Amino acid sequence: MPSDFAYSSLRRLASAPGARHLIQRVRGEQDEIRLAIGRLESHLLDLRRPQRLQDAEFKVFSQFGEDGIIQHLVRAVDPAETTFVEIGTGDYRESNTRFLLQNDNWRGVVIDGGEDHVRFVLGSGLSWRYDVEPVSAFVTRENVNQLIGDAGLNGRIGLLSVDVDGIDYWLWNAIDVVDPAIVVAEYNALLGPEAAITVPYDPAFVNSDAHFSQLYFGASLGALVHLGSQRGYRFVGCASNGANAFFVREDVAGDLPAQTAASGYRESRFLTGRNPDGTLSRNRSVAERLALIGDLPVIDVTTGTETTVATAVGARGRA
Question: Structure pTM?
Fold first, then answer.
């Protein structure tokens, strides 16, 4: 374990003149290595010919294995439109579309409520080497189409990614200015595969404000599969980490096998819950985590009626 002296030395190094430039250079070199390895992984997909999404997974700039799944789906679909929209990007160092941008030379729009992604894109080689437009805005169903359209995209695009830890269902349901071939949507795995529920629509929704645990957000996989079917999309599975679900428009889905919410569901193993004091919760019990948010309201998207998490999820919370 590093000593106090080592920590103080690192702090001094980080604050030294030119340290920021050095850190940026090192990060840039690391990204070049990651990109090179990702390109090798991408080429190997042609040899492996994965039959399951999890067999295609690899990580370059995505949070988990989404980069590999997206490369696999792009090969299967071969969309004519090499364009993307990503909503909910953080600082864009880690995202679902950055590898598409840098490996495949796609172009697109990345939208987030903060400014970190704007600073990163404009302060790095991405701002001139590639065609990516960073937009800073808190996205709602009332403004999402205008934000995308004003950034220059409309009609058919290659991919849409929605990951805002909140009103994801309502945003995808509202988007009609673009017609993506592939959709990547975050789901709340804690809610299980069967219930088709989402948090009620609130344009100001922030999961950390909605409940201290940060477990009350988004939509169940069943809700997204229901919405995808209504919008003409085939659900083709989830990443093995249990965070993102993948959909392909039926007219371009070809031989990609369809999944049900039950067959494609993947439980999440990562821990993001919080204690009342804001520290990370180590509580792994599904029942105990669901009990924290059991009385909170959700909308059953198949009926439009309001219920509670506990009522909708039922026996899963007692398993």
Answer: 0.90
